[in-house]
Amino acid sequence: MTQSSAGAGDHTVSVVVCAFTEDRWGDLTDALAALQSQSRRPDEVVLVIDHNDVLRLRSEQAWGSRVAVVANDRGRGLSGARNTGVEAASGSIIAFLDDDAVPEPDWLERLLAPFAEPEVVAVGGAALPRWSSERPRWWPREFDWIVGCSYRGLPEHGGDVRNVIGAAMAFRAEVFAEGERFSAAVGRVGTAPTGCEETELCIRVRRRRPEARIVFEPTARVLHRVTPARERVSYFARRCLAEGHSKAAVSELVGAHDGLSTERTYVTRTLPSGVARGVGAAVRERDAAGLARAGMIVLGLTVTAAGYAHGRYGQWRRRRPASVPEDLSVPEDLPVPEDLPVAEELPVAEELPVADADGPTRPFRPVRLVELELTDPRPVAPQVDLETGRTYERGRVLVRQGGRPVGVLDTDLVAGGLGARELTPIRARFQAAAAPGESSPDETAAGAAMPGGLAASVVIATHDRPEALCRCLDSVLATGYPDLDVVVVDNAPSSSATYDVVTRRYPQVRYVRDDVPGLARAHNTGLSLVHNPVVAFTDDDVVVDPGWVRALVAQLAAADDVGCVTGLIWPAELETVAQALIEEQGDFGKGFERRRFNLDGSRPADPLFPYTAGSLGSGANMAFRTSVLRELGGFDPALGAGSRGRGGDDLAAFVDVILAGYALVYEPAAIVHHHHHHRRELEAVRAQALDYGAGLSAYLTRLAVRRPSVLVDFVRLGPRAVRHLLTGSGAARSGEDVDGSEDPSARRRELLRLRLLGVAQGPLAYARGAQDARRAKAASTR
């Protein structure tokens, strides 16, 4: 009788256990003891010690009379250790058990039963998590594979699968006799959260023997220990990132079609069902943890996709011929930079020299912000600011044509500033580029806004910044827009300073106090007081352009299907490195062309639309048709500054407008000048990068929670989304490096790492923010 045709009871069985650290001695002891009391005892147990002589000697002393203790004589890591165990095993069936997994008494008996069918070449059992205390309520069962356990999505009653789970599995020895081994190109080394070596092996075996079957047997169970360190969100994210890298490695070895065959069903069916299940628990059972689980599914999918894309890009870089130029664009399906930031802290210099293209580094130079009107022949931008007496060597020029912005110019400033000689070629360049026949914002507004009867309200949320608020209110009132209503929402103030200054200096402005912190909540409070058909929102630290309200209203008056208009945000000062980095990282400028966005005729070519809502505008400069914003429920109080979500309230509103069938218009003629007086320090830049990342993933979590079907889009667009996240932030806007460090990329990597950390925090933050919002709403109705 051949081994392949033998029944389950005719086999000899070797169990291979691999161990690498003394920290798991207690777990290892429990696992080996449980093997000795199996209902079907193994014929031999092979304990492989992975490059740890101390552990090997200790194991020989404790277990040498009952198990075969061998040292891994191959490369360090789980694949090498398992291959060593294969060489040492003599059974016709070779089972593998993790050193921190304890099998139930009938585990081996049930694991062997499917081998009675000759076409079965591998069987995997069920690994159940043994949490340190209890399962974290935010942890979705769909992601139990993170801790090496069976997950929701596997066949409930068993059946054929693509691959087994490594914690408890068995193969016919003939598989290895034919030359198959666990690949050292994948697999765990030490505590590194990588894996997939059994997946790659199973795919290879099936390719060699198409008739072979690999079976999941859920009644063959082991309890897999989960340490407290693995019950954290940080480990969850790290493991997802590593899994993406591992899947990329498997795809490189066996091809993406086979390497991702199971994952496609998992992503398109299992995960959307998990999100819906979590949302349903939150709605029906008022279980806030349901939202957390839904959010963690979105986070896990996003981070795993990032790891996969990064791994595939690294493979492409390694395969690229040396003759290919370094500036070759990255292929669409391999979009992630190779130098993904690592976890360790990056050094940050406090003195920030700027690297010139042709010379040594020099300290950061403040930038003078000036404006050039092409129809005005007068010179601009002298070196010396007459108000402060400060001398500037650099200037950033906002160029206008008839009041409308048409471009930006970074230039060195010389004595006397930009005179006629310097301005002549500049005027010629921008006048040629300006769109012919475009009216100024004032002319457009005058022709459209008032006949349409669109009175407007401006809502300004503020928190303990009365001086900045006064500067903002002065500029809004100076627009001179007829029938303008201004509402100040004093959000969670620590004193009466804002109330005092508004009621004393601005009797025409309505003041309201809201003691619950949160920008979205404050905006909703202001929205509840608005009676005009247009409502605009801006921050308390901006100065609006004279034509700001008119430019916003004109676009809402021009077409009934426009639900939202956003505008250009221009810095009011660039005096410090921190302010320059905020401008660079914030991506406030969206260009100088008016653009219309919707799902139909005005859908942009960007495949990520509308999920990259940051390209649509920013919350410091936005206006809505009041009826549309109310129809959509206003802003989500679980998002935004001051909430757990920390941001994303504006992005969510933009996408709500688009998905509801309305159009959003970006109008660069609607300009606000953003002051960063309160953000002059580098720590503010770091905090902002973290908040941006959290707000982004919190807003995407909200989107997935409300529309689970978007998860399919998230997977399909994952590689492009990762590239957008990792390369679309912090592109320098001038030829000179605004960062100023000797290694200009180091600080950007630090900020990117903080943004990614924020992304990891966002889903759980949104779940907590949603819980806070429900509590606040319940308290307000009492």
From TrEMBL:
Classification via PANTHER family: GLYCOSYLTRANSFERASE, GLYCOSYLTRANSFERASE 2-LIKE DOMAIN-CONTAINING PROTEIN
Superkingdom, taxonomy of origin: Bacteria
CDD domains: CESA_like
Domain Glycosyltransferase 2-like positions: 14-177, 457-631
Gene3D superfamilies, sorted: Spore Coat Polysaccharide Biosynthesis Protein SpsA, Chain A
Protein name in the entry: Glycosyltransferase family 2 protein
SUPFAM superfamilies, per the entry: Nucleotide-diphospho-sugar transferases
